[in-house]
Amino acid sequence: MSYLGLVLNTCSGSGSDVADSEPAALEPERKRGKAWLAWEDRALAKQVLADDPILNRPGGKKEDCWREVALNLSRKMNMNRSGSSCKNRMDLLVELHRKADTRSKQKTCSVEEVDLHVRNMTDICMLFDSVSTNTEIRQKAKDKLTARKEKATQLRIASMSSQVRKRDLMEAGDPVEVLSGIETVETANGEPCRKRVRAPKNQFANEVEGVLAGLKEKSEAFRNAILERERRDREREEREKEREEREKQRAEIEKRNADGQKELNTKLDVLINTMNIFVQHSLRNAKEPDQSSI
Where is this region: Disordered (predicted)? Predict the structure, then answer.
């Protein structure tokens, strides 16, 4: 069974809060606020990765994204949960995963299911970190994504160049020849001749390719989200710089206007004083002839 193709089972047992009982399709309709079961946690994590309500989406609200998650869970798994309940539960699961408590809450399920759930929660935590307002946390998430992408590339190259397991080559015919990757054919003169045939890809190789494809898709989504956030940050910084530049220019213009007004007032004062002196002098000159005539 492919790791990516695992179907969320409804095995009996207990989750973090209460025991699992029946599969989702057989459970009665549940009221809002009822404790989450272990299989519901796994289904929620898988649906969150599918719908991606964590990363910022242009023109969309977080509440609408989480309502979409709840709607898909109701349609696919018959889970009666609200969008806010899904969001609050995921916040708690992320907190538990950061404390390394994810496995302890999934004790009764198969190893494959638990491993898949742990991987899903790790990816979800990285999603939260990639949109964190803390620059250090966001940078660490970016570094992890880069390292994961490089590792996925190396794994893909290794899977493409590795030999196919012999047991996957067993077909009808001579077991020894088939296991050796050699096919016996007849030549034109009827003599037997052997030629090497290309072995088909085995199940493990297909699973590896599926995992790599999923990792590539997720890493690309993470990368696009980080690039989008960095672009918005740059645009905001540019707007802030433009605003500061406009404020600076406005202040300089106001200062120049104030200095010009001050200089104009000074000149007007000098002109007025000069006019007053001239008028007074003219009045004195006008009185002197009258006195001389007397």
Answer: 231-265
Q: What torsion do the CA atoms of 288, 291, 292, 294 make, to the nearest 10 degrees?
A: 160
Buried b (16+ CB within 10 A) or exposed e, 194-225: eeeeeeeeeeebebbbebbebbeebbebbeeb
Which percentage of the chain shows pLDDT scores above 90? 29
Please choose, from the candidates 122, 97, 76, 111, the residue with its C-alpha nearest in 3D space to the C-alpha of residue 215: 122
Alpha helices in the chain (DSSP H): 38-51, 62-77, 83-98, 111-130, 135-161, 175-179, 203-293
Q: What is the pLDDT of residue 63?
A: 83
**Weakest-pLDDT range from 53-62, 71-80, 226-235:** 53-62
Arithmetic mean of pLDDT, 257-282: 90
> Among all chains, which residue has been given the structure tokens 């077991």?
175
3-state DSSP assignment of residue 103: helix
pTM score of the predicted model: 0.41
pLDDT tens-digit series, residues 152-165: 777 777 766 654 44
Q: What is the mean pLDDT of residues 133-149?
A: 78
Three-class SS of 258-280: HHHHHHHHHHHHHHHHHHHHHHH
Give me the amino acid identity at 201. K
Q: Where are the domains of the chain?
A: 1-131
Q: Calculate the CA 178 to chain-centre distance.
A: 48
CA 105 remoteness from chain centre: 26
Q: What is the spatial distance between Cα 260 and Cα 272, in angstroms, rounded to a whole number?
A: 18
Q: Which residue has the tokens 């037997």?
A: 192
Contact 11, 114 (CB under 8 A): no
Please, which residues bridge with residue 196 across strands? 182
